[in-house]
Every structure is written in structure tokens, then in C-alpha cells.
Amino acid sequence: MRLSLLLLVLISSSSFAKQAIVESPNKKIKITISDQSSAPHYSISFNNKNVIENSSLGFEFKQQAAFDEGFTITNITTNQVQSKWQQPWGERQTVVDHHNEVAVTFSKSSPHGGTYTVRFRAFDSGVGFRYEVPKQEGFEDIEITKELTEFAITAADKATAWWIPARGWNRYEYVYNTTPLQDAALAHTPFTFKNADGVHVSIHEAALVDYAAMVLNQRRPGTLQADLTPWSDGIAVKKQGAFTTPWRTVQIGEKAIDLINSDIILNLNEPNKLGDVSWVKPGKYVGIWWGMHINETTWGSGEKHGATTQNTKYYMDFAAQYGFDGVLVEGWNLGWDGDWFFNGDVFSFTQPYDDFDIAELTRYGQQKGVQLIGHHETSGNVTNYRNQMEDAYALYEKSNVSQIKTGYVADGGNIKRIDENGIVRKEWHDGQFMVNEYLHSIKLAAKHKLSINTHEPIKDTGLRRTYPNWIAREGARGQEFNAWGTPPNPPEHIPMLAFTRMLAGPMDFTPGIFDMGFNGLGADTNRPQTTLAKQLALYVVMYSPIQMAADLPRNYLAKPDAFQFIQDVPTDWQQSIALAGEVGDYVVFARKERKRDNYSGNDWYLGAVTDEHARTIDIKLDFLEPGKVFEAQIYKDGDKAEWKNTPYDIKIEQRIVTAKDTLSLKLATSGGTAIRFKAI
Fold first, then answer.
1. What are the Cα distances from residue 352, in Å, to 311, 366, 402, 406?
2. Can you tell me the distance from the alpha carbon of 387 to that of 30, in angstroms, rounded to the nearest whole number?
3. Both 459 and 536 in a single domain?
4. How many CB atoms are closer than 10 A to CB 128?
5. Could you tell me if 163 and 44 lie in one domain?
6. Is residue 328 part of a domain?
7. How many whole angstroms from its chain centre is CA 301?
8. Which stretches of 230-306 are DSSP H helices?
């Protein structure tokens, strides 16, 4: 394989300029880096057409001179990688890392002008680049006030974007906007758009460690600028000595599903740092959770308290009988009484309510082969949580808990910390302070062999590769919005998440609601705006290594035939393929189970979901192994199914298929299809 890297010396009227060019292995993507006019820039083309026009690079600092004008290319190194590595759990077991790399050093000749390197990697499915700033005189302590990275979108006035607002009160939990790209304001990443040529692009970041999250700010029409979420004092990032930034990523595909089938985010993260992680276990769970959201039980103590010893034993019995690994219990610890949203100062993470006997439930769970799944809600007071974290994790380790759902419910910009002087400071969920705080919990949890499922998290940037106990996150509008969201998640929500939020990594969406009518049916009530078949399909479409059967046990027992799919479907995969889809319209996934526990490693599963439009999709089964025969166990929308008034109409059938067959999937409005291909 030849690494395509070309140095050019261009003569202009005022100076000499250098260029470095690197291509992807398949030669479809080309990155050009230059110091034209003595300022660092880059551009990206795809199939010989620009996707990103000439865009700025660099930094501004509080004290030092900016890394912008006056910098020229002083060194270039190249590399190429073609390797494979394996995930301990994931959407696929083996990940291919194939890229060409160029590292371009920019320097300024004036005293204390500075030097830094930008490392670019070109994959067949996109680009990653990061800054590497060495230790140097005059830059021992720096405060970054602005990152100058730009993404100048080609023909932005003809592009369509899908995005949610950044730095709002509700963190990442917004319904996605579909707008002309030029109408996007301050936006979170992943930020997905389709350009005038029909090329699909998503801008995000990878390996976010000890740095502020990047959001995109469209200051000039068509030019998206990296906007770093600041500390409470206004500084974006604080660093000492040498440092590297997260990778800025640009995923590129001819089709929307090409974005999903990319592994760029994972490949740009460091390998596992935890060593043996056999204690990190994918699986399925039930929980004392949905009843609180529909007001049957309460988090706080009293007559309707959900987290009681008796109720937890009931859920453990149900889990043991139907093959679930754990029971999530929320509201077990002191602090939930009153308005718990503002109770962060008084939460205890080691003291249970009197009606919750954690020692007895540990014993009972071990007898049943079911674990407690821990829960810690901070209500945004991270100092209170940090002060108790060691004791809280030790208690869970003693109690045979292996997974914890953590919560950081607080308005954006309202995370409460106490600084070294005892002064209360308010920080963003995605600023540098909280980036480090979330990671601190992951590292400490690993010492106790605990996995963390973070809710109200910092966005996923692929750190599950480096810290495999970061097993899932929320970071979008989840199922609970269907209980009280006003409006609830719209029919397009899932096929929208597949091409936006889910490009970042696993989401604990909590699927599987079987009772759509707890507030009544119809279009104007808080309820899941889906059919029953679509709820089943979510177990394949919405990837997470831990999946919840979110509804009340009685609702599953009322529909045992449909419930069978939830019992059968695994959460850990040998391979995953997005087969078809368009952003916000529909998506179809096929996944092959990984051999683990009760799973043979021979079966495939398919999930298909649509938006408010009914549609028929023909899917070739050529992902199945040639020469093998499978029984397709199909859970599909019935003939009269539609999400508003007849969501429960479901048809379950079996047929024999091979890789040569094609299935026609008929999806109702906000409907779906879930299929198990059982090898026979």
C-alpha cells in the first residue's frame, strides 16, 4: 500500500507556502494542509469535490500570543496503519483500523512564537485530527480562551442539517431540528448534515479527556467554529506543559448508513488501560423505575415508595424467571424526599431508607442468580458525590453490585462544585471540570470492579475503548420523556438518533414499553408514539451492551408472545451492519450475536423502524452466512397497526430463509419489525 503524501512548494507574491496532502486508503478522501499566507489551514475533499473548504486551525490564549498568523510548516512526518483489534464487548468484536497519517508541525520564528503539531488521519470513512503542543518556553502554564478550528462547509446554503442546541438548560435532551445548515445556531456534536451532492457528513470528536467539549458555533454563514464549553470563570481550557487535544472528527459517506458503519470514533481512542475486564458484563435488566415516571410509585419514602425490600424481591423473582441479569433500584437511599431535583446537598450514597434492606437483598439476589444494579443520583452536586464516592463504591462491591447507573440531573451550567476556598461554583456538564469528574468516577469504579452507566452525562467520544467499564450513557431524550415529556418523543426520534447521537456510542434508552395507554391513546398524550413492534425493534436498533425491559412486569405477562423477543435478544454482538436508512425517516440494522453465556454465536437479529410514515422496505438477507438455513421468527406490525389508536396490533410468524432470500418489511406509521434468524 502506498501512502499518498505530497509536499509542494508554491510561489506566491509575498512568500513561499507549503502543502501536505494525505489520502484515505481507498483514495476517495483527500486532506490538504497548508500555511498559505503564513497561517495554518486545512481542507477536505471527497470523490474529488470539496466537503470542507479552506478552514482555520490554531488557538488563542489569555496570556500568550495566539497560534494563528505567522505560523509556517516546519516539519512533516507520515505513517500508515492497517491493523485489527478486539473489543471485550461491543457492536462488533473485531474492529479494523486502516488509515494514512500525516503530522504537520507549525512554528513561528519570533521569540516565544510557539510551535505545535496537527496530526491528521485519513480513513475510508472520514478524517480525524488533533493538536499536539509540546513543552516549550513561555507556554508552561496556559489558559486557552478560544480554539480556532473551523469547518467551512462547501455550498452550505444548499445543505440540510440535523442538530440539537448546545448549552441549553436540558443538556443533550432535546428533540432534533431538521433545518437548512445555515439556520443551525450553537449546536452539539455529533452534528450531521447532507450537502448539495447528497454526501452525508457528521462532525464530532473522539477521546475527550482533560479538555472542554467542542460545540459548533456558526458565526459566519456556512462556517462552523469550534466553541469550547468554558469554566465558570470564562476560561475554556487550563493546561500545564505538553498536551494533546481530543480528535476532531469528520465522518463522510455517500449514503447515510455509511456514517453508522464507521469505526472512526473508536479507532481514535487509546487501547484498553484497565487490563483484564472480564468482570464487565453485558446483559439485560428490569427495574423499579418506570412506575415512578408514570406516578404509580415514588422515589421518596412513604406509602407509595417504590424501592422497598418487598418490591425489589418481586422484581428479582421476575428477573430470575425470565432470564434477566439484574434489577435496577432507584430511590433506595436517603435524600429523595421533597423536591429531589434540588437535594444534591443531602443525598447519602451509603444510607438506605428503613424499608430497603440492602444486605438481605444481596443475599436474596445471590440465591436467585440476580444482581442489584446500583443507582446514584447527584442532582448536580458533584462535590457531595465525590466526598462519598469511595465509601459508596465499596458498599456496592460488598453488595455484589457490578453496575451503577449514575445521574447528574441539573440544569445545564448548574453543576455545583465547591472549590479549594470553599466557594460554590457552577459548571457546565461538558466543561473541562466535569469531563474530568466523570472520568474520575470511571477510574475509581474500575478499582472496585464496577461498571458505570452515566445519565445526564458528558457526550460519548469513544472512551469505552480505553475504559471498558464505561458501559453505557444516556445523553439524549430517552424513554422517560414518553411518560411526561410534553411533547413526548416524536415518531422520527429513533431514526433520527441512529444518524446523530448514536454515532457517538451506546445509549441506555430503556426500550420495551408494552402499555402505551397509561395516559390514554391518541396523538396528544404523553405516551410512546410507537407501535408495539417498534418497541421490540429498538433492542436491535438502539445499541447498548446493557438493555432494560423498562415496563412493569404485569405488562409483559399480559403479552407473553411479544415478550419472548425481549427474552431472546442478546446485547453483545459479533457483527453489526446498518443495511438501509435515511436520517430521521427510517433505519434497518442487522446484528449477529456474540458467543457468550446462553448465546450460541450463530443467530442474527434484525431491527427496522420508521417515522410517522408507513413504508415498505425490501431487505436482502445476504448478510446471513451462505449455505446456512435459518428460521426467521418475525415480529411485525399487524395489518391494522398504526401508532395513534391501534399500536398493539402485532403479527408473529415464522418462515425458513437463507442468504439468497429477500424480505419485504411492511412498517406501519411509527412502526417496526424485529426478527430473530435462528440457525437450524
1. 15, 20, 18, 16
2. 49
3. no
4. 25
5. yes
6. yes
7. 33
8. 256-260, 264-267, 290-293
Same-domain status, 324 and 185:
no
Same domain, 120 and 252: yes
The confidence score (pLDDT) of residue 393 equals: 98
Find out whether the peptide bond into 180 is cis, omega within 30 degrees of 0.
no
**Three-state DSSP state, 676:** strand
Does residue 143 have an active-site annotation?
Answer: no
Task: Classify residue 220 by burial, with Cβ atoms within 10 Å: 0-12, 13-18, 19+.
Answer: exposed
pLDDT in tens, 416-461: 999 999 999 999 999 999 999 999 999 999 999 999 999 999 999 9
- Residues 30, 21 contacting (CB under 8 angstroms): yes
Of 152, 145, 128, nearest to 219 (Cα)? Answer: 152
Look up the pTM and report it.
0.97
**In angstroms, what is the C-alpha Rg of the chain?**
25
Residue for grid cell 424480505: 663
291 shares a domain with 184: no
Long-range contacts of 356-360 (CB under 8 A, 24+ apart): 356/307, 356/308, 356/309, 356/312, 356/329, 356/332, 357/309, 358/332, 358/395, 358/399, 359/399, 360/309
Q: How many CB atoms lie within 10 A of CB 302?
A: 10
Please give the average per-residue pLDDT across 549-553, as a whole number: 98
- Segments forming the whole domain that contains residue 591: 487-511+523-542+554-680
Could you write out the DSSP letters of every residue in 621-666?
-TTSPTT--EEEEEEEE-TT-BTTTBTT-EEEEEEEE-TT-EEEEE
DSSP 159-194: -EEEE-BSS-TTTT--PPEEEEGGG--SB-SSEEEE
What's the structural domain count of the chain? 3
User: Do the strands 424-427 and 415-418 form a parallel or antiparallel pair, or are they unpaired?
Assistant: antiparallel
* Cα dihedral: 542, 438, 292, 330 (round 10): 110
Q: How far apart are CA 227 and CA 306, in angstroms?
A: 42
The domain spanning residue 537 has which CATH number?
A: 3.20.20.70
| Pair (126, 14) in one structural domain | yes
Close Cβ partners of 547 (under 8 Å, ≥ 6 residues apart): 283, 284, 285, 511, 512, 539, 569, 571
Whether residue 560 sits in one domain with residue 428: no
Nearest-angstrom CA–CA distance, 167 and 229 = 8
Among candidates 399, 287, 294, 300, which has minimal Cα distance to 355? 300
Supply the DSSP symbol for 221: T
Q: Indicate the pLDDT class of residue 34, thresholds 50, 70 and 90.
A: very high
Q: How many angstroms separate the CA atoms of 44 and 153, rounded?
A: 10
Cis peptide before 626 (omega within 30 of 0): no
- If you average pLDDT over residues 492-514, what whole number do you get? 98
For 176-225, write each residue's pLDDT tens digit. Answer: 999 999 999 999 999 999 999 999 999 999 999 999 999 999 989 999 99
Query: Of 147, 377, 480, 593, which is the active-site residue?
Result: 480
Residue 679, SS3? Answer: strand
Q: CATH number of the domain that 63 lies in?
A: 2.70.98.10
Measure the CA–CA gap between 402 and 391, rounded to whole angstroms.
15
Residue carrying C-alpha cell 405516551: 527
Q: Which phi and psi angles does 186 have, rounded to 5°?
A: -70, 115
Indicate if 464 and 506 belong to the same structural domain. no
Q: How far is CA 288 from CA 306, 509, 525, 554, in A?
A: 6, 16, 23, 13
pLDDT tens column, 577-606:
999 999 999 999 999 999 998 899 999 999
